[in-house]
């Protein structure tokens, strides 16, 4: 009840100001372990939901998507809330402010968010210090890598290499983000002429980098707006004898809008409930294109265990939520494992791994 009241108050504030207030509150809770334990008591692991991927243990499939804690400020509190894993970022080599404000817009009636943030980041050195202060964590940590806005595409590989070299020692997995719609030209890096040499360079660097999961697996985050031809080309990367990546994240925000969308005036990437079906369709497409060879993290419109289950059946091994968690809060995290287990049992699956991709065969 208190959480619902706080959410109601925050939803009356400017979205970015409310986001900053929430982060500060979680930072404070991060320094109060007893309070964290009281607010979010640990629950028993359900073996039906447990998976080991890339040598990492995931108690259940739901993690926090990148974008909420860009600079790794609130990791202890977020890890205590019930997420099975966390992803921070996007992190750029140098600090940058991102795009001008206002750049974040919340639409409660549609359960949607539009953002044109443009990778605001404290920079890799500050983020590294924040992670060092927060370690050790009780859940796997992913780090989402980006380039600075003023770095030309021809030099993007150097930006990604710098961030990887700085942060790989702290990462359980790494994410190459070439799909944000809010950095001019960035999505061109999804084209193989740019992507292949970028992946080759990062694979070389990650093999040399120390870290808790060395070499840290490298995942590619793609846009939900890709044409089928591009999806097929990316899927083919997974079929190589020695793939240049270890998994996909599907996907980023979308530039498309649903029919009858009531807010045509706002540019930027759309997330939340309107992204749900599109993201699930692209999960299925990349699963089929890659023949299920590599794990997929499904993102977009996950507000419940049922939403997550749809993406798992489409081909996702793990899922992430951000907008859905903002609306659902800690109640969503508390009920998620039991609700997902009920769905698996209803359909006769012995465990979550047995359900992955069953609708995309």
From TrEMBL:
Q: What class of enzyme is it?
A: oxidoreductase
| Entry's EC annotation | 1.3.5.2
The record's active-site residues are 180 (nucleophile)
Q: Which cofactors, if any, are listed as required?
A: FMN
Task: Give the GO terms filed under biological process for this record.
Answer: 'de novo' pyrimidine nucleobase biosynthetic process; 'de novo' UMP biosynthetic process
Q: What is its main location?
A: membrane
Q: How is the cofactor bound?
A: Binds 1 FMN per subunit.
Q: What does this protein do?
A: Catalyzes the conversion of dihydroorotate to orotate with quinone as electron acceptor.
The name this protein carries in UniProt is Dihydroorotate dehydrogenase (quinone)
> What is the native source organism of this protein?
Igneacidithiobacillus copahuensis
Q: Which gene encodes it?
A: pyrD
């Amino acid at each position: 009840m208190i959480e619902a009241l706080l959410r109601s108050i925050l939803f009356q504030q400017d979205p970015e100001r409310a986001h900053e207030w929430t982060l500060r509150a979680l930072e404070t809770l991060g320094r109060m372990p007893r309070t964290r334990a009281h607010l979010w008591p640990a629950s028993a692991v359900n073996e039906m939901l447990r998976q080991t991927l890339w040598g990492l243990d995931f108690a259940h499939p739901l993690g926090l998507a990148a974008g909420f804690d860009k600079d790794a400020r609130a990791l202890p509190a977020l890890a205590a809330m019930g997420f099975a894993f966390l992803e921070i970022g996007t992190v750029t080599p140098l600090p940058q402010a991102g795009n001008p404000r206002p750049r974040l817009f919340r639409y409660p009636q549609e359960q949607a968010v539009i953002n044109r943030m443009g990778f605001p980041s404290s920079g890799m050195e500050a983020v590294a210090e924040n992670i060092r202060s927060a370690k050790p964590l009780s859940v796997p940590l992913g780090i989402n890598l980006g380039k600075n806005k003023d770095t030309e595409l021809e030099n993007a590989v150097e930006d990604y290499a710098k961030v990887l070299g700085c942060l790989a020692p702290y990462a359980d997995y790494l994410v190459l983000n070439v799909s944000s719609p809010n950095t001019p030209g960035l999505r061109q890096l999804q084209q193989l002429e740019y992507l292949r040499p970028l992946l080759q360079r990062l694979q070389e660097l990650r093999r040399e980098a120390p870290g808790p999961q060395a070499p840290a697996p490298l995942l590619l985050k793609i846009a939900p707006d890709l044409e089928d031809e591009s999806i097929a080309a990316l899927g083919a990367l997974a079929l190589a004898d020695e793939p240049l990546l270890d998994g996909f994240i599907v996907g980023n925000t979308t530039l498309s809008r649903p029919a009858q969308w009531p807010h045509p005036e706002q540019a930027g990437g759309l997330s939340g409930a309107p992204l749900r079906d599109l993201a699930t369709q692209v999960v299925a497409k990349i699963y089929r294109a890659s023949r299920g060879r590599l794990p997929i993290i499904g993102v977009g419109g996950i507000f419940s265990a049922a939403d997550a289950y749809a993406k798992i059946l489409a081909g996702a091994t793990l899922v992430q939520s951000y907008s859905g968690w903002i609306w659902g809060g800690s109640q969503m995290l508390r009920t998620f494992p039991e609700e997902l287990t009920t769905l698996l049992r209803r359909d006769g699956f012995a465990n979550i791994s047995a359900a992955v991709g069953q609708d995309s065969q």
